[in-house]
Amino acid sequence: MTAPPGRRERKKAATRQKIADTALRLFLERGYDEVGIREVAAEADVAVTTLFSHFASKEALVFEQDADFEQGLTRAVTERAPHEPLIPALRSEIHAMVRHCTADGAAPIFRMIDESPALRDYEDSMRLRHAESLATAIAADPDLARSATACRTIARFVIDAYSLGREAADPAAAVDEIFRMIEAAWEAA
């Protein structure tokens, strides 16, 4: 059992969340390109250096759950039960991510992302990083025994399943359809 976070960790997490919430509110009210980092810091009542100690860039403010998503993907591989098949574990994780990102209130955020070249580029690089982390986790599992190319390919398919599912009229059905193809590709590898 892990110990609950201490006071310092709780304060840091609260500050990070306050900054992210403030940034998102300002971006949605006024437009991503119209809001500067200094404005976000001032509105969140933190120093610019504090903002940058929590977020590496302005774009990272929009994708504040990036690390959680990446860790969730790798945990779906590394923490699955012994002999639990890989693809159903990943399908379950992608379903959870898609549900989170299609919940009420998410549409304006993704509209903002779609309208901003900087945010689209950041999202593309984030997806590639997530795919590489996932491929590394898959390749490290001795029970899976696939080539590095197969692991990287499946990881990219999984990341694309998230993106395509999130954009579909019926996200759950789209994820299931995509994962049937992913499962066939995994078996063929």
TrEMBL record:
Q: Is this entry keyworded Protease?
A: no
Q: Write out the entry's keywords from A to Z.
A: DNA-binding, Transcription, Transcription regulation
A family per Pfam: TetR_N
Q: Does the keyword Transcription regulation apply?
A: yes
- Enumerate the InterPro entries for this protein: Homeodomain-like_sf (IPR009057), HTH-type_TetR-like_transc_reg (IPR050109), HTH_TetR (IPR001647)
Where is each HTH tetR-type domain found?
13-73
Residues within the DNA-binding region(s)? 36-55
Please give the name of this protein: TetR family transcriptional regulator
Q: What is the protein's species of origin?
A: Amycolatopsis oliviviridis
For this protein's source organism, the top of the classification is: Bacteria, Bacillati, Actinomycetota, Actinomycetes, Pseudonocardiales
